Amino acid sequence: MFAGSKYFFTARLCNFLGGCSTSSQAGINVVNFQIPTVKILGSPSRTLSRQFPLSINSDAYVMGCDDAIKSYRGLEYTWSLSIDGVAQPSLVSASVDETKFTLGAYQLAVDTSYELQLTVLSTASQKASSASVQIFVASGVIVARILGGSTQ
């Protein structure tokens, strides 16, 4: 069966005496259930220092019926950041572009591993796919600044 096609069925039933009957029925419409393809661009595991902002880009699309054209329309993005499977709802993206997740510097805890998950829903098919990336926040370098240290 092919997406976008309508099929009609005819059934013929005969009994043991040889009497037969035929019936035709309007068939079914085959719909293409578009499942989004979701990618988080870059390495699946990252380390960054707390003093730097976090910026993650994604690529999500559904393929057309002929699998030749990518469509970026009708997609809903949901980003979630978690520690050991526990969601961190206070850490939300500052980006106005829903395909990107950004956080300012000093918003993540040092020596902590986070999982950032992106779930993309196709509004046409109500099917969703997810991708995730692991983020480890390393402690930064300590720089001493001594006032008057160059003169005695």
Task: Tell me the Rg in angstroms.
Answer: 27 Å
Helix content estimate: under 10%
Care to count the β-strands? Answer: 11
Shape: rod-shaped
Order of helices and strands: EEEEEEEEEEE
For the biggest sheet, the summary is: 5 strands, mixed
In the sheet with the most strands, the strands line up as 4-11-10-7-8
Key structural traits:
152 residues; five-stranded mixed sheet; four-stranded antiparallel sheet; 11 strands; rod-shaped; single chain; mainly beta; 46% strand
Overview of this structure, please?
- By secondary structure, the chain is mostly beta strands.
- The chain has strands at residues 9-14, 20-25, 37-40, 45-49, 54-63, 70-71, 75-83, 86-87, 100-103, 112-122, 128-138.
- The chain is rod-shaped, with a radius of gyration of 27 Å.
- The N and C termini lie far apart (87 Å).
- The chain is 0% helix and 46% strand.
- The strands form 3 sheets. The protein has a 5-stranded mixed β-sheet, with no helix packed on it. Strands 3, 5, 6 and 9 form a 4-stranded antiparallel β-sheet that branches. A two-stranded antiparallel ribbon has the order 1-2.
Write the layout of secondary structure elements.
Layout: E1 9-14, E2 20-25, E3 37-40, E4 45-49, E5 54-63, E6 70-71, E7 75-83, E8 86-87, E9 100-103, E10 112-122, E11 128-138
Parallel strand pairs: 4-11
Antiparallel strand pairs: 1-2, 3-5, 5-6, 5-9, 7-8, 7-10, 10-11
Task: Give a nutshell description of this structure.
The protein is mainly beta and 152 residues long.
